[in-house]
Amino acid sequence: MSRKILIADDEPNIVISLEFLMKREGFEVIIATDGEEAVHRIRSDRPDLVLLDVMMPKKSGFEVCQEVKADPALQDIRILMLTAKGRDTEVSKGLALGADAYMTKPFSTKELVERVRSMLER
Amino acid sequence: MLSGSTIVGASIAYLLVLFAVAYVGDRRADQGRSIIDNPWVYSLSLGVYCTAWTYFGSVGRAASGGIWFLPIYLGPTLGLALSWLVVLKMIRIAKTHRITSIADFVASRYGKSHVLGGLVTVIAVVGTVPYIALQLKAISGGYALLTGDHDSDFSPLHLGGWLQDSTLYLALTLAAFTVLFGTRHLDTTERHEGMVAAIAFESVVKLLAFLAVGVYVTYFLYDGIGDIYARAAANPDLLSLLSFDGAGKTGYGGWFSLMLLAMLSIIFLPRQFQIMVVENVNEQHLRRASWVFPAYLLAINIFVIPMALGGLLLFGRGTVDPDTFVLTLPMVHGQVELALLVFVGGLSAATGMVIVETIALSTMVCNDLVMPLLLRGSDFARDGRRDLTGTLLMIRRGAIVVVMLLGYLYFRLAGEAYALVSIGLISFAAVAQFAPAMLGGMYWRGGTRDGALAGLLAGFSVWAYTLLLPSFAKSGWLDMAILTAGPFGIEFLRPEHLFGLGGLDSLSHALFWSLLANVCGYVGVSLLRSPTGAEASQATLFVDVFRRGPGTPASFWRSGAEVRELVPLVSRFLGKRRTEEAFARYARSHDLSSLDQLKADPELVNFAESLLAGAIGSASARVMVSTVVQEEPLGLDEVMNILDEASQVRAYSHQLEEKSRALEVATSELRAANEQLKEFDRLKDDFMSSVTHELRTPLTSIRALSEMMLDDPRTDLANRKRFLGIIVSETERLTRLVNQVLDLAKIESGHAEWHNSDVDMRELVEHAISTTSQLFRDRGAEIVTDLADAVPVLRADHDRLLQVMINLLSNAAKFVPEGRGRVEVKLSVGDEGIRVDVADNGEGISPELEPVVFEKFRQGGGAKARPQGTGLGLPISRQIVEHFGGRLWVKSKPGEGAVFSFVLPMQPV
Fold first, then answer.
1. When comparing pLDDT for B564 and A73, which is higher?
2. DSSP character for B756?
3. Contact check, Cβ <8 Å, B704/A12
4. Which of A18, B228, B378, B735 is at 20 to 30 A from B757, Cα to Cα?
5. pLDDT over threshold 60, residue B249
6. Distances (CA, A) of B381 to B374, B387, B628, B844
7. Mutate to test the interface with A, among B688, B692, B695, B697 (most CBs of A within 10 A)
8. Helical spans, DSSP H, in A1-55
9. Domains and CATH numbers, chain A
10. What is the pTM assigned to this prediction?
11. Are B708 and A24 in contact (CB < 8 Å)?
């Protein structure tokens, strides 16, 4: 069965490219364009992995991550944080909040796909 | 008429009471319960100023000159009120340096000079020995009156042979008393507490006796003061005494010189210095004395004029000597007991003066005349084994007897001569010569030994020539021609009209010339050379006595000495027991347990010297200490260096305080600047972070889409087209971003170029609308304009303003609802200038976000609006508007849209 991936980002063009990339790799893709929607979709659709943008309206990626990791029912969901802010503090903050991996934008599509696959295999 | 034995008995009884008081005073002092440590006793002891001359002579002066007697008492009243600070300083100096006489004071101030001390002593002796004689005369005259040894006008008939003269025995008795209480102790530095107690007691006795006779004359012989004045007013002979004019034969100048004289003498008479300065126990007592003593003077003078007038009314002018009124008035009315009381009062006035004066003079003679001579004799100074305390006391006792006998001798020789009668004021004028050297020494650092010597010599010589010499002439001892024709017939040099100066009474004349010569000599000679090291150091110690802080050393010299030499030296003069006590006290005050631990540093040497100074005077002490101390004499330069160092330390610490204050200010300024820099740094970081984010976001799409197309050449054409379109638009976004960041940076740093021209705002607004019309058409929004017809031409950058306008319009286009958007553009002219409003019917902005939309990278609206906006449009627009002196703001009601407005002044600033 194909794995389900939630793409949470407020940049339409990034969503388009990520959606295309993930579908091409054979994943089922759902989309959220802000933080609240992301939490909502995680609870309702239970994706296997979330590609989570940090800078989003309504709820930041950090908040979403925190909320998901605090919920025992959502423990299996892997979170890959994506951010355009490359500072070290952002990375460590995300990891501290329980994100499983972290990539800075712009990313290499190959690396992203490899990372997603390795995360899902675990 | 009283028998001699009664009077002698009464006198002896009185003297015994005096002994008792003095004895109690000394006993109490030994027990540490001083009775003179009391401001009242101190104030009363100052009453030693009122001598027999006051007691008998005031009435005499009042009888001849009316209120002419007053300046002698107004002077001290004024003097004490005005100069108590001067006296306070004198007391502090005397205590600090253990100064025991006025001669010592002067000698010590001018470099511990033997010569000066000796000169002051000579002046004091010459000036005051006749004064002592006057006291003896008063007592002798009173005795004669009471025993009836007088003619019908109450003039004493004769003096007996020397050995039969009761005055001699009186003088000897007084000398004995003075020796007992003035030099009772082996220690020669302590105060004479018993003597002071006796003097205070005598002040009370003479005041009570004088008041008793005053009350008797005024209220028993007459009907009060009013009655006496009324009778005197009725008598043309006495009328003149009641008015100022009658007293004014010497004019106001005479009043002035008398007051000045009395003012100076209250401080500089040897006995006054002794009581007021040397015997002072507590500086605070001076405050009480500054009003009690004048009150005392007032009390003792209340009945002077009534008695003078009463006596003149009774006896008439030219018969009975008015000086004897206080005795003769009770006597002719048979009040012998009262007369006896008055005699005792006079006796107390005379003895008080004689005792204190002889003590003061004997100290000076001993320390400043005899000691220097003895020290010059080699045996005395070098024979370190001899205990000299006994010798010292013998010298002092001898000096007392000699001074007393000198007074008696003068009394016998001068008799009724003018030279004795007028000696009171002449004596005052002599001690007034001390004033320049003393006052100058306390307040002027520049005074030198030579200056003081010159001033004193000049003043004393002029005094002797203009006052003493004429008094001898008037006594018949010299040819009167010297007064009328001048010495050797040189009229120019007539002693009472020196250099042709006339129009003054002889006293004012003498005072003027002597003080002039004195001050000129003192100041002139002092200015000839700068002070030596010794003079400069003493000057500083005296002048700055109130200011001695930790930075000022107690003395100015370097030395090497041995404690085992210093202690024996001091004990030779002070006695073993007292010396060891003093050194032990010193050791304790320096936290040392025994004498052996004392180090002979300059401070200890100074301490030893001041101990010695109390006993033998500062100049002699200096000489003695120098025999055991290897001293390096300090030159003026070195003293000045020490002083400079002290003042530099003060100045330096002052500077340090200033600097630390300045540092605190600078620190807080730096801290504030640092905070600001940190804030700037944080803003810059935020900006960079935002720029990075804004750059990376489009790059993300571009890279991802390009990589996918590169990886998979089979991507279908439709997707390819879509992706390439996104890449192009994201590239445009990047370009825009880079341009705007640079633009903003330029404007903010002030490096932007502004191309000003005449701008027609109506044309500009229409231009912007046509530029953005495609945007509105795409969103299906309508645009409504309300543009004023005539708008003044504005001097501004056309393209920049167009940029603002397009930014506002494109923002509006972004946020209006799809398909039913409506944007109103209004151009108007108001007081503030040209105003443009762009109103949309979008969602509006919540009030808390209103200011935020002008911040960099803060974008309103949802994701749909994002791609076109960089988040820099509004910040740039605001910068541009503000550059032309205008304002850009937003007003919004959430749900009803927002109105962005800006206004530009007609005359851009």
1. A73
2. E
3. no
4. B735
5. no
6. 8, 11, 11, 112
7. B697
8. 12-24, 35-45
9. 4-121 (3.40.50.2300)
10. 0.60
11. yes
Nearest CA in chain B to A25: B708
Task: Collect all residues of chain B within an 8 Å Cβ-Cβ radius of residue A18.
Answer: 704
Domain co-membership, B329 together with B204: yes
- Contact present, B46 and B36 (Cβ < 8 Å): no
CB contact under 8 Å between B726 and A17, yes or no, is yes
pLDDT tens digits along A1-44: 678 999 999 888 899 999 999 998 889 999 998 888 999 999 99
The shortest C-alpha distance from A39 to chain B (Å) reads 18
Q: What is the DSSP string of B553-614?
A: -SS--EEE--HHHHHHHHHHHH-HHHHHHHHHHHHHHTT-SSGGG----HHHHHHHHHHHHH
Give the number of other Cβ atoms within 10 Å of residue B353's Cβ. 28
Which CATH number covers residue B766?
3.30.565.10
Residue B684 buriedness (CB in 10 A; 0-12 / 13-18 / 19+) = exposed
Instruction: Test A84 with B693 for CB contact under 8 angstroms.
Output: yes
Closest residue on chain B to A58 (Cα): B862
Residue B862 has a pLDDT of: 47
Q: In what order do the strands lie in the sheet with B782-787?
A: B782-787, B822-829, B834-839, B897-904, B887-893
| B304: pLDDT strictly greater than 70 | yes
Q: Residue A84: which of B697, B704, B866 has the nearest Cβ?
A: B697
Query: What confidence score (pLDDT) does residue B382 get?
Result: 54
pLDDT per residue over B10-44, tens digit each? Answer: 888 888 888 888 888 888 877 777 777 788 888 88
Does the beta-carbon distance from A57 to B862 stay under 8 Å? yes
Q: Which of B696, B730, B862 sits opposite A105 (nearest CB)?
A: B696
Domain boundary among B634, B663, B681: B634
Q: B160 pLDDT exceeds 60?
A: no
Instruction: Specify whether B144 is located in the same domain as B269.
Output: yes
Each residue's pLDDT tens digit, B323-357? 888 888 888 887 888 888 888 888 888 888 888 88
Highest mean pLDDT among B63-72, B303-312, B515-524, B623-632: B515-524
pLDDT score recorded for residue B552: 45
**Which residues of B fall within a CB distance of 8 Å from A20?**
705, 708, 719, 723
The 8-class DSSP code of residue B156 comes to B
Interface test mutation site (partner B, options A55, A104, A105, max chain B beta carbons within 10 A) = A105
Please tell me the distance in Å from B884's CA to the nearest CA on chain A: 35
Question: B898 to chain A nearest CA, in Å?
Answer: 21
Name the residue type at position B712. D
CB contact under 8 A, A106 and B700: yes
Residues from chain A that touch B700, judged by Cβ atoms under 8 A, are: 11, 14, 17, 84, 105-107
- Of the CA atoms within 13 Å of residue A88, those in its CB half-sphere come to 0
CB-based contact A16 B707, cutoff 8 Å: no
CB-based burial, B167-182: b 16+ in 10 Å, e otherwise: bbebbeebbbbbbbbb
Pair (B695, B812) in one structural domain: no
